[in-house]
């Protein structure tokens, strides 16, 4: 029997994959905010762990000496001690292709909302003074320059959607050299910030990307630029963003992720003007949740069966896959 622990509820179709197997002993913790001691007990003795948002540090992972795989319900891995997994020679799987469309659409929605100042437009209708519609600062995105930081699957999807709106698309990614037609790859990030009307972040959270967008980078952006972070909290320096919004240097900030989640009242972004905030929900459409759940569970089953696909393994290079 393979002992599978699922931390956080998954789509019914993903659960159905587990139920088709008669060699799986399942432990399910549906509460995404379950206390650490409950998480630790659920992990104890597991062969596979499918995880949404729970933290899996080394001391918790070591409660499963026969562990074979940790599979993320998504593509971010900052909640898992990947270095410890690699040291043990174990794969950390991700749901490649599970949420790229959902996050890309969310990102573009934020860009359009902030460019057209939709919140203010809504307020004006309520005020009843339509003469104010000439004061909204609404702009078209066609012909404006979008800088994408991180050109993996999500970044590429954003570029496709932005290109359809007539935006000029630049992409920065030191790990990727090939870019689709219509996208310009940039090597000089500092210079690229100065060209951008909109900057959107789609990088993993590494030590070298924390923060990737700080005060210097924001100041290098055009006055009136828009910044979007639908990647990971901490990649954008929140106090620096708040100051730029307050001064008016940034036209707007769209944010799905925060340095601490849930974001508390002491987070300066929550009291900043010209923001569009969402609760780390860019991927949580029914379509996105189904795809992520199906892929994440299948990765565990594939690992048990000895056929986990290398492209699904986040630490494959370190493991020599």
Low-confidence runs (pLDDT<50, min 5 residues)? none
**Shape, please?**
elongated
Distance between the termini: 26 Å
Taking Cα atoms only, what radius of gyration do you get, to the nearest Å?
Answer: 21 Å
Judged by helices, strands and strand pairing, the structural class is alpha/beta
Average pLDDT over all residues: 94
Query: SSE order in H/E notation?
Result: EHEHEHEHEHHEHEEHEHEHEEHH
For the sheet with most strands, the description reads: 7 strands, parallel
Strand content: 15-25%
DSSP helical segment count = 12
Helix residue percentage: 25-40%
With strands numbered from the N-terminus, the spatial order across the biggest sheet is 8-7-6-9-10-11-12
Tally the beta strands: 12
Write up this protein.
- This protein is of the alpha/beta class.
- The protein contains twelve helices and twelve strands.
- Strands 8-7-6-9-10-11-12 form a seven-stranded parallel β-sheet, sandwiched between helices.
- Strand 4 (69-72), helix 4 and strand 5 (92-93) form a beta-alpha-beta unit.
- It is elongated and about 70 Å long.
């Amino acid at each position: 029997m393979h002992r599978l622990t699922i931390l956080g509820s998954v789509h019914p179709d993903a659960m159905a994959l587990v139920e088709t197997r008669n060699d799986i002993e399942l432990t399910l913790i549906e509460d995404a905010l379950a206390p650490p001691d409950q998480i630790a007990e659920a992990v104890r003795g597991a062969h596979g762990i499918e995880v949404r948002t729970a933290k899996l540090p080394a001391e918790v992972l070591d409660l499963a000496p026969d562990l074979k795989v940790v599979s993320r319900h998504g593509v971010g891995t900052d909640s898992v001690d990947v270095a410890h997994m690699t040291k043990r020679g174990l794969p950390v799987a991700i749901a490649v292709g599970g949420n790229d469309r959902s996050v890309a659409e969310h990102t573009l929605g934020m860009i359009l909302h902030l460019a057209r100042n939709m919140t203010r437009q809504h307020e004006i209708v309520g005020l009843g003074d339509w003469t104010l519609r000439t004061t909204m600062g609404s702009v078209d995105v066609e012909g404006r320059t979008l800088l994408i930081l991180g050109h993996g699957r999500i970044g590429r999807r954003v570029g496709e959607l932005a290109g359809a709106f007539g935006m000029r698309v630049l992409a920065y990614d030191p790990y990727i050299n090939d870019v689709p037609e219509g996208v310009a790859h940039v090597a000089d990030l500092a210079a690229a910030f100065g060209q951008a009307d909109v900057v959107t972040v789609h990088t993993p959270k590494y030590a070298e990307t924390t923060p990737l967008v700080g005060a210097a980078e924001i100041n290098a952006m055009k006055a009136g630029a828009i910044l979007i972070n639908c990647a990971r909290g901490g990649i954008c320096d929140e106090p620096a963003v708040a100051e730029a919004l307050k001064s008016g240097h940034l036209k707007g900030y769209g944010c799905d992720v925060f340095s601490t989640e849930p974001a508390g009242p002491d987070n300066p972004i929550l009291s900043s003007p010209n923001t569009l905030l969402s609760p780390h929900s860019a991927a949580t459409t029914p379509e996105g949740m189904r795809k992520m759940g199906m892929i994440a569970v299948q990765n565990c089953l594939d690992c048990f069966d000895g056929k986990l696909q290398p492209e699904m393994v986040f630490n494959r290079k370190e493991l020599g896959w």
